[in-house]
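Bug: token stream looks shifted between consecutive jobs. Job 1:
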Amino acid sequence: MLIDRCVIEVRSGKGGDGCISFLRDKNTAKGGPDGGNGGRGGSIYFLGKANLNNLYNFRHSRTFIAQDGEKGMKTMRYGHNAEDITIEVPVGTIVTEESTGRVLADIKEEGQKVLVAKGGRGGRGNACFKSSRHRIPRIAENGHPGEKKRLILELKLLADAGLIGFPSVGKSTFLNVVSKANVPTADYPFTTLVPNLGVCYLKDGRSFVLADMPGLIKGAHEGKGLGIQFLRHIERTRILIHLVSMSGERDPYQDYLAINEELKAYDAFLEQRPQIVVASMMDMEGAEDLKKKFDKKLGFESIALSSLTHEGVDKLLKKAIELIEATPEFPIKGVNETTKMKVYDAREIEGKSDYQILRGENGWIIKGEKVERDAALINTTTDEGIVRLIRYLDNIGIEERLQEVGAQDGDKVQIGDFVFDYTT
């Protein structure tokens, strides 16, 4: 069973909380703060593996959770970092964030490793807050939260050329002739249910990867037939080899136009790829006359091909390899030269200090990415921690903003899990 698209959830680990502790030792004249820092939470990576060709492993395992970092301890002992999780995916996998539609990674190479969810940094213990003016700090940081994401994984096969055309035009038979793919063939439509890959070797030693796509029909981009499930696999190809049957059962030129309309309607610039138009099944009766009429409507000569007699096979392979070598790689839908893979940096959230104050059921709620993140790091289990949080809120002008939205004396104000009473 080919599974080439799935949705999974990843959760990186939270950083360990910093420790509040003071040295008590009869052999030490003066103690002092000795709370250690928390450990880093586990991160989640994707690793490209060439020996995988399916997302089948994600059929049942759809949630990946990294461990939290260990809390800091007294006597300046730091918490252990949690182990990272590395998830193996097939080469050719596109990773997209479900909520935003943003592409996080395009895994195109064996061994390519991509960070998709970074573990939280460990919080600082109270020993880090000691200074000449503050010798007995009763405060520590909570660990940074981890990340929780729902990711869409799409496998798009890595092939140099793609075979396209209506069902039963000889695509699978041709792939079997020029490679060792051994694709099942039969005299009924939709024999091919999944994309197949084969390596084509030329007499001069050159080679390329050819993908046989399940037959397209009119309306494939809307979900008709099997095409919509596999059009994505054509996106990585440099060129398309378009087989049009000369068996006489259908109008070759209308089939040619219909397939190109489907490529255009898919909206991934597939119609811009160079195409080699091939008149297949030339061993059928009346094929020569049909080809002449077909070429006249095309305005150029198609390549005559018979997989039965091997007519035109070498000519087609030679033209394909020359066109592949002359054609640059096309960008994947949603991935382009300006797409930036996420680089994790603590400075990334600088400048996002703006926040909103919203009316809630029981009072006011402060919302803002940086404000909530900063507040979550402050340990409010001690009086000094609460004072530090209130001082932070004062510095960012919370009181003035509360006045602007109409907060009254005694109203409840919430930021994250911390709730306090507003006083004028």
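Job 2, same session, no restart:
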Amino acid sequence: MTIHKEGKPTITLSVIIIIAFILVVNIIQPINTIIHYTLYTIFFILIAFILWFFRSPKRKVIINPDCVLSPADGKVLAIEKKIETEYFKKEMIQVSVFMSPLNVHLNRYPVSGEVVYSKYHPGKYLVAWHPKASEKNERTSIVLSTEKKVSLLVRQIAGTVARRIVYYSKPGEIVKQGDEMGFIKFGSRADIFIPLETEILVKIGEKVKAGKSIIAKI
């Protein structure tokens, strides 16, 4: 299992804290008791969860300029027509994907093209499925323009638990469908705003995978 680079600082710090705590406990009480073994078990489960959370599975992405791929692993939370107020300022189709703490949290570009806009917004930490999370929570917005001159917006959104968004997009950069777009640490959501004329190919409640599942057909 490959660990994503964004997880290495967290994993290192967690291991250091756990080792230090175990040393202190053993100095205070050098004879192992049921409390020691309980703590060891809890620490083992914690480290195993952190390693699992930051996994970065290898995926073979089949590039298709006629399709919009999912930017995130998770479950389709919403599909609705909505005014995109930040960049396009017009009605578009919003597809939201909710990522639980058990999902892979590496986000991928849904299409190939040029990054024409990217911005980080500080904000609140409402639960990821809250209707206002897309506008009120800490988030990043990335606008991509394809070779066919189709533009869409992808938004990484922090949740109640997720408080750290990493994104790699820079305006003017040429990106490839399925490449790494960013990482959200611990439970969150990704929204994608697509032109009205696109054909949506997913349903609410459907499970999707970043770089694999087709969200819509251009």
